[in-house]
Amino acid sequence: MVGVRLADDERARVPFAIVGVLLLVSSATLATTFLTRPSGGAEADGDAAMERADAAVTTALRAAVDRAARNAAADPVVTPANTTYGRVLNESRAFRDALELRVYLQARRALAGIEASAGEARVTADLPPIDGPADARAAIERVSLARTGNGTVSVAIANVSATLWRHDRFVDRRTTTVRFTSATPVLVAHDRVAEYERRLNRGPTEGRGLGRQFASRLYAWTWARGYAQFGGLPVDNVLGNRHVSLSANEAALATQRGVFGTSDDAGRRALGRARGRLLAQEAVDQTPGETGISPAQWTDLVLGEPDGSFADATPDVAPVPETGTPPTTHDDPVTVGVNESAAEAFRRLLDGDGGPTLERLVRRTYSASVRVHATSRQVAAEPALPARPPGPGWERRGRRTTRTVTVDSGSAPVPTRAPGSTRFLTFERVVTVTETTTTAWARGGNRTETERTSNRTYRVGVAVDAAPAALAPGSDGRVAGAFQPGGVLGGETPSAVRQPVRSVLADRGGPDAVAAAAARGQLDESPTVVFGPPPEDATDTAYLAAAALRDRTRNRSVTTTRGDLVTTATPAASLADGIAADRPELVSAGDPYPSVSARLRAAARAAYLDRLLDELGSRADATARSRDGADEALSDHGHSLAEADATMNASANTTRRAAPPVGTAGPAGQVSFEVAAAPSYLVTSELDTDRARAVRADGFAPLAARNVNLFTVPYGAAADTVTRQVDRGASGDRVALATGSPALAAMEHAGRVAENASARQRRARLRDAVGSSLASVRAQVATDLATTTTLAHSEANAAVAAAYEQYPTDAARAAAVVNGSLVPHIAHEAADRIATDGDGGAAPSARQRDELRLRARTALRTARQSEAARLPQGPVGDASSFLRDRQRSLVSAGARSALQNGVEGYLNGSSDEEVPHTFSGVPLVPMYSWVVTTNVWVVEVRGTYPRFAVRADRGTPAAPGGFDYSRDGAPVAFDVNGDGTAERVGHADRVAFENSVAVVIAVPAGKQGVGDRNGVADEHTSGWPCPSPGRWPDPTGPGTDAGAENASDCSTDLYTSGRTDDHVPRTPDRRVGTVATRAGSRVRRRPRRHRRGPRRGRRR
């Protein structure tokens, strides 16, 4: 066997390089396989850690949202601060931005503590940090919170990062948006409180809210007490601030119920105590100070509990009964009649004012319209030959034509008789018209003329027709027997009746002249009016017919409501429309009329109706002018009559519905609320920190109120505005006798109760002024009677003087002049003197007596309204001031007399010891057509809750009992950038409001009107115009807001003159309606006047 070395053996030899490459590739493939193969332990640990982290993140974020919500509800940011981080918040959604920022900060802190691990894997979670304002704004935008229908909050937090670590080495990062639903009611609680504040600031015409509830209660008090005063009860202050305060709190509790579904339990108890005390005061018409109770005692009595809290809540507190409906309200119907307008229209008829007098009316009725008319027909014609020269060489030098008319008897057609006319005469003629044309010729020095003749023949028929003249008003129907004896042309025989008609024909030259004129086309066929002698009793007939209609129309009336009578209704215009519609029936025109006297009566009625419609039109214009004056007076206080009308309508339709519950299928069921305000009842007196810790400083008045009675006396500035609109000639420094008369009567009564030297002096001055006015009235009435009747001036003056003597004092005479009871006495005295001095001593006829009464009535009315009869303001004002200062003693004296004479008689007005009052209110219209006395109170309130809290009954296992939301004016600060120092971001502004209502009342004319008689036209609480501040007093020094608002600032005027439109809600097209406002904003803008610094804690 031969030995072979391996190196030398080449059998099946593979190159070593190839083997090396093979080994290298095999080892690389094996290594790759080991590295990429799933490792069961490491991957499973990472997934498990991530899943655990996801669960932990959601749980942590839920808890973070709950903590942020509770913190935000405890210190809600209502307005942002003027600080670095306060300016990050959007002013229009400051609370939500602050809440989202709180959620982000709580979420970041919560995520910082999350670490989920599994095996060697570990997961952490985080959110980007906040290092400045830009980061804070970005953080807010990463959080989204939205209310759901069931009272929960839908939450979305973006940019939540989860990081996977292994052996403290980064493996992976995942960024997601975490979404979930939180059971916190923070948004619904905040929105309800914001809605409550909006409704507190909502005016009476702007929708459901405090304004409408407030107006409803103010109207109830005002109309109840106003009509009690008008009925004779001793009510000297119709609407006082005690009524305003109670009404404002009632309205606030009703508004709470409408927003939260419930109201403050302690507030209801306080309201019951306040109402009970007020009703006790009403029994003697006294204010708290006059009953010996100090403001502090009143506060203790009403509030009871030392501070409002949920611990004080008693759900079983029964609701306090609402203020009862007064017996008379603005919706009650009132009837307005023609009344004195009938007499004034009749006087105008007698005087010929605006139309013919009765005498002229009679003359026009007893007249005829006579028409002479003809028909003419040409029956023959002989035309003239053309003019020819006498021979050759003659030239025409001129031409003239002469016309001759020949009239002969003959037959001819007569014109047709017009309907309704009577034919008096016809005749027929043949008229020949001959025209001769003479032509002048010349040749050299020779002259000659030639003639040519033409003839035209006409047959002319002439008729003379007559009809009753259409001069008198009324329908121009046919009149039976118009041209018989005693008809429109008078006369006792047929020939006497025809004579005026024949005179028309004779005035035109007779029959032949008329026929010739007709043939020539020159007959004037226009009618000629002729007058006949009327019967002796024709004027009486017309007078009695118009007087009967006067008495009939005097009783015409329309019905409206008392409120509309002041604001929108114009009864005079409605009366005029109704009378105009019934005119045919009232005139009773005939076709045919049975007689001329029937036509006369219809004409008299028509003439009277024309005057009556004019008079009612003037009365409607005067009403509109006086309403403009009242509107002007209201505009000085930021209101208008249109708004007052809308307020009355809104207050009449006020509802007291509770808000529906929130949610039915939420994670915790329905959300209901409790309310706890501090104080629970907004008092007008000042509180201290012992009473309500939330005030933070003594001297805090939760409610400030003011009510201004515009027409306390009818000669104040507001009443002068109305009077000047109606009586353009009225002097601004004088007042009507209607004002001075009750003042003098009251001073006479006061002399028996509060007599002293001052009273005697004032009474003497007023008596002299009233006496001068009465003398002027007497002189004017006597002159009027002497002018319009058969009385001589001396007789008329004696008649008026004798009528005056029927009353023992000037006060009684003045009252008789004002109320018209003097009229029958004047008429009676005048009639007696006419009977004594007349022919044969004949007594005046019924017509004469009626006219005397009418003349006396209208003359007296004109005289008392004259400028000469007005009194100087000084004596009247001095007497009124004296009476108001002693009103209490006068009422007390009257009450003592009532106890002696019978209380019932005193209260129902039958007692002889009724206490006279000076006049209050303003007549609308202040003339003879005065049908209503009106007055207006402008009521303004401003209120602030030191603390207002609500609790939603949705708790959690960690925080059972409910969710509390509270606004107390505190500054809001929390650590935004994580430096350990809290940054000011905003303010938890207190719930504050202001509202204004114009309250209008109307009472029938007469008596002493309606209004405050305690001498205080502008009544306001001690805290007016500033209620408590809307925020805590701001600290001073470094770190405070730049330009921080002064917590104690407020404007002195809620509204200013000329800014009515800023208060009356209007739509963009200027119609009265609701104005959209953003959440948390003031309902009405008010001008910044008398400012002491920036606005306190409430933005516009």
TrEMBL record:
The chain crosses the membrane at residues 12-35. The keyword Calcium does not apply. The keyword Lipoprotein does not apply. It comes from the Archaea. Keywords: Membrane, Transmembrane, Transmembrane helix. Residues 377-420, 1008-1100 are annotated as: Disordered. Residues 1048-1058 have a biased composition (Polar residues). Residues 1081-1100 have a biased composition (Basic residues). Residues 1026-1036 have a biased composition (Pro residues). Residues 1059-1072 have a biased composition (Basic and acidic residues). Coiled coil: none annotated. Pfam families: DUF7286. This is Uncharacterized protein. It comes from Haloarchaeobius iranensis.
